[in-house]
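Hey, quick one: can you model this chain's 3D structure?
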Amino acid sequence: YAREGRYALAEPHFDAAARLAPKDAHVRFNHGNALLMAGHPAEAAAQYREALRLDPGFDRAQAMLRQALAR
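Sure thing. Here's the predicted structure for all 71 residues.
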């Protein structure tokens, strides 16, 4: 759904992915991207922060966190 721009429909799938792979920073990063594109920067920032907690060297997550906070 996210690839098609249907971000709201992607939300439950990202929640399920996070439950299945709770230590996967990329799942949180992608969830953050979908939330940001859906117009939810605060929620996106929370996902990027979790991605960075799981992988402190995740540069793309840091960059996207800055974008989310700027909105």
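One thing worth noting: Residues 7-20 form the longest helix (14 residues).
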